[in-house]
Amino acid sequence: MRTRLFYIIGSLATVAALLFVSGYSLIEVGNGAIKGAFTAPDAWHATLRWSTAYILIGAGVIISVRAGFFNLGAQGQFYLGSLGAVSVSLYWSNGPRYLVIAMSLVAGIVGGALWAYVPGWLRVKHDANEVITTLMTNFLAILVLRSLSRGVLQDDAGSGEASSSRTIDPSLRISNGSGFSITTLAISTFVLITLWLILTRTRFGIISGIVGRNPLMARWQGVDVGDVGIKVFLLSGASAGLAGAVEVLGANGRVSSGFEADLGMTAILVAIVSGLGAIGLALAAIFFGAMQAALLYIPIVSDVPPSSLQLMSGMIALFVTAKFAINLRHIRKQGLHKSGESL
Fold first, then answer.
1. Fewest Cβ atoms nearer than 10 Å: which of 48, 73, 144, 215?
2. Residue numbers in the chain where pLDDT is lower than 50
3. Which residues have C-beta within 8 Å of that of residue 93, sequence separation ≥ 6?
């Protein structure tokens, strides 16, 4: 935990130094960041809106990474979840309100889970590298999103690269344009509690942790590693799909070509920074949610280029993921050595 805090503080200090050398006022930037994340009107709503998305996607990432499966397809699963939700909301808009909302959320969960199942099956049955296959499914999801947003779901008012689906009925929205409401807060809280229970209070959570640390020992003890892999991919995809559904029913109200394009990768970073735990995920999501809200607000009140602020996320990603990879390799080496002694 101390190491991750050190990297975050170091990244903040580095970006501050670069801004200072470039001639920008650090006081102005700092005030803008605080206002954008916390004190401006609806700032907390913006922070919690992004935090909710990071929690929903990050929960699935944590489950898969703890089991030793690296699902980098969160963005694609998010898109398929959003497409499932918007399809139900548009084509069943005259149904009972709460039932339509519930089925839209379910459609998002199913869409994300099914999209994650394919690389999961390839990994388990054919030992295909899940990093490559999940990244490829992200690109396929973008093509599916573009095709449908310019096809059967298209809003006639849109065109070209800006094409988007029709907007869902306002009565089916679970939040206003800010993307935050008691409903979205309840969903993210439910997911956090469920994640904590899975990781600490279920047989599956304990077994998946063993598989992640030492798959050889897990097999030796009779664990079906392939079955665990399929389940974590389904759970991971379902969580990202739920995030897509919440985004459609909340802030966006529709899908469009390439919307929220960085959400999945940022959520993966949030999950790693969290230390792969539920409480850590909540804290990391709020931090990155505040940073995203500030990133969108600062250019309004200053001339600081957004790319300078995005550099901070990139530096945190570099340091934290590098440390995570080193630690994971060390843990697995220790596990293999111990299992070799036992055998």
1. 144
2. 335-343
3. 100, 168, 169, 172
